[in-house]
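I can't quite decide. Please look over this sequence plus structure tokens:

:::
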Amino acid sequence: MKKILISSLFVSSLLFNACTTNHALLNFKKENIRNSNALQFTKKSDIKISNEPKVQFFASYLNKINRDLNNNKEEFLIGVYLINSKTQNFLQEGFQITLNGKEALDKILVDEKSELIKSLPIKNPWGRYYKVEFEKQEEGSMILKLEKTNFGQTQLSFQK
């Protein structure tokens, strides 16, 4: 009798779990981020001084997330949170962003209410977000680097 009860509980639990919604993918908006690869192509890193984070750096590689983008450029949505800074503008604070050592072609501030930002799997509500465009890169790995002279640097690695 005990074996039958345990077996029926196991089967019913499998049935209930199989019929539930996958909540992990509910954050993605189909209009902007069209697939579950968004999490795979979004990364975060910090600049630390004396083991304390001073800058949080987020980046999503948009070319892999949204296949409808112009393929003549490499496009990233980056977020930067400068801890204890009133401006929250990494450009005014003297930071540079490069991809494989090359400067960005364009940096556009994205409205914090944008659907693109709302659909990101990793974000910081206090940071500022920018759409950053770079020259087309060859196949292989890409290193997105945020740095400031005499302050520090951090980098994120993406595969093309």
